[in-house]
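How it folds
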Amino acid sequence: MPLFYSHTINETTRLAIWHIAETEDFFLEKVPISRAITHPHKRLQHLAGRYLLQWLFPDFPLHLIQVADTRKPYLPGDSHHFSISHCGDYAAAIVSTTERVGLDIEIPVDRIRNIQHKYLGEAELLMLLENQPKAAQIQRLTLAWSAKESIFKWYSLGEMDFKLQMHLHRLHADGDQGSIEASLTKPECIPLLLKCRFFEPLVLSWLATT
């Protein structure tokens, strides 16, 4: 079983990452395909993400998932809040029965530098990159994108400017884990605290709050 990572945040909120090494048939025995996806790898990612929802909470009602106009999947009535992310051969999910959640995984690559000014302001770039070697800079830029993706999913209402309405103020890193002080300014300023983990070859961020 290629479970890559799991974490119980509290008694009502859990997350996990799956390293996809199975064939499609493995997941189809347990998870229905919920929409038409023709690309084989994207189908695997989709199935692995749905599989993780029930791995985290066996009573998760997969058959009730709907997709909002913003393309965010949700459960009517919010019996479970959830967020799914895919990257390469990995899928991740977070589920909570009490809190709104957002989660994202990314694989650091050099081309993140080409878009850094599209989602980060000058103060954020200085905070993330000052006195950091190149490898650490790539990892931090990727983590910053992941963090803003997590905020976007947590917010769930779409129409968000990653650079102007999401702000990262401070990264606290301690070995392979840390936290990010952030804020969302839509419509009012909302302070947020994200958690993060560094793996080989991934970065992970998540947000769980009411």
Notes: The CA atoms of residues 70 and 157 lie 6 Å apart. The chain has a mean pLDDT of 94. The radius of gyration is 17 Å.
